[in-house]
Each structure stands twice: as structure tokens, then as C-alpha cells.
Write a structure and sequence with these properties.
By secondary structure, the chain is of the alpha+beta class. The protein contains 1 helix and 5 strands.
Length: 71
């Protein structure tokens, strides 16, 4: 996958998906004091983790979605 520090690779099963995925937060600039969303689903396939997030309907949430769309 891609992160703020570049591409990373992890072995299948290396990441533990929590039972309550809503505990996984989406933060501005990885700053836990600036949350803008939380996971609604996380699944592992043979090739990757796939996560879906609910994002706040705020200017910060809109900015985050715009930046994600731009890559």
C-alpha cells in the first residue's frame, strides 16, 4: 500500500483488524487530536486490506477527500 512515507509491503495476516473497526480513526496529518472520520469496514483480501471510512461533513473532511482523490 501507499503511505505518507511511501510504498509499504506487509505479509498477509500481519495486520490485526479490530473487532470494532470504528476504533480506527482517520486523522488530519496523522494528528490524533484532529480526527475527521472512522472506519466503517475493513477486510483483508489475498492481495490487500480494503477499508471504508465515514468522513465528517466539514471543511476538513471535504479537504481530506479532495486530497485523497488527487493522490
Amino acid at each position: 500500500g501507499h503511505t505518507n512515507v511511501g510504498k509499504i509491503t506487509a505479509a498477509a495476516g500481519a495486520v490485526t483488524i479490530p473487532d470494532d473497526v470504528s476504533t480506527v480513526h482517520l486523522n488530519i496529518e496523522h494528528d490524533f487530536t484532529r480526527p475527521v472520520g472512522r472506519a466503517t469496514s475493513i477486510t483483508e483480501t489475498d492481495e490487500r486490506l480494503v477499508a471504508t471510512f465515514a468522513v465528517a461533513r466539514t471543511r476538513a473532511g471535504d479537504d481530506l477527500l479532495e486530497e485523497a482523490a488527487e493522490g
